[in-house]
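At this stage, I put together a protein sequence along with its fold in token form, as given directly below:
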Amino acid sequence: MKIFNTLTRKKEEFVPVTPGKAGIYVCGPTVYDYIHIGNARPMIVFDTLRRYLEFRGYDVNYVSNFTDVDDKIIRRALEENVDPFEISERFIKECKTDMEALNVRPATTHPQATLEIPDMIEMIRQLIEKGHAYHVNGTVYFRTRSFDGYGKLSHKNIDDLESGHRDEAHQLKVSGEDEKEDPLDFVLWKPKKEGEPFWESPWGEGRPGWHLECSVMSKKYIGGTLDIHAGGEDLIFPHHENEIAQSEAANGTTFSNYWMHNGFLKIDNEKMSKSLGNFFTVREICEKYDPQVIRFFMLSAQYRSPLNFSADLIESAKAGLERIQNGAEKLKDIIAKQNGKEMSAEEERILKEELPAFVDKFDAAMDDDLNTADAISAIFELIRFTNASTDENSSSEFAKKLYETLFTLSDTVLGIHPERKADAVSEEEVAKIEQLIMERTAAKKEKNFARADEIRDELAAMGIVIKDTREGVKWQRA
């Protein structure tokens, strides 16, 4: 498998630190509100990366954190007049609910920043001892110029960064807050403010800086060198750049061998913003669309490409998902008949000679920097092939083998269910629906088409769509 490494700006063969194992760290959300549709993209993309590596036989240690102490959390707590921990715990729970809806599997570990403070204090101690950090009036700063490789991930020149910080340096001097040795230095520990949560430290009561949290949690739960560090491209600088600097300065080892970043998500070709009125949470979107449609949409483009969220594209994703579901439904109908036929010689030849080509095409797409768009195209080709290769005379065993392949590629790897969502329909409703369908069938036989149309309308009013097929009448929720 080849991965585009942000660090080197080229595709590289994935070679893990330990053969057969893969340690992946993905920056998780700051839990002060419901996750928005932009948060969903890295969650879905890198959940798919994990699924594919496991499909390939890797033992994956997948770690994704929750930032549960932050200015935004504190601000929300003040607005609601509650403890900040009440806010973070509430929205961790809500985030997990939305992740489950999107079929994002729980991480191997979901560390929370507030539970790892002692290790953060220890890393700061190490950085101070090694001359990479310094303490001023309760704040600890990282000495950015002490790390020679600063800027290697974002490909920024440190001298250009310095010129960009000249105004900031001037402002600090004017305000009398010129505590930093260099404007490029960033915070590792900040002193407490009135009404904020705090922890004891050798530098006074306070809390850790955001960048430090991920460095500590990734090391604790994966190790000194990660195989893959992933997140949105907005995190490349300064967050991931600062993570590299403090981690490699403290540990003396490469922080991560591969860096993967997903592209931005726009809403109707505009940047998502509350001020523009185009800011949507996953919860809001899932009230309008099946979460599986959202997952399909997110995987319909290669992860590094920008992605535009619009009603038309979501409808297109809905249609694409239905193609998969219709193909699966046809195979399941054949399987359900249990016709007892033995596979024909032609069916056996197809399974042996033709079916593997679709799996190979799928694998080739996924091996090419997780190209889920081309992988979905391979699934569509598989569905066209199965539709052409099966009919009511096909053996149920043949249909089962085809279905198993479809299920593995779409569900096991991409997390896209090939079966329609089971809507909550009571036994009484099912009995009524099937009775109406029987009446409609009888009316059509009697050429009472007016009554047949009335029944179709009655079912539609109940939210039921019916379809006449060679196998009989099929129904589903609209």
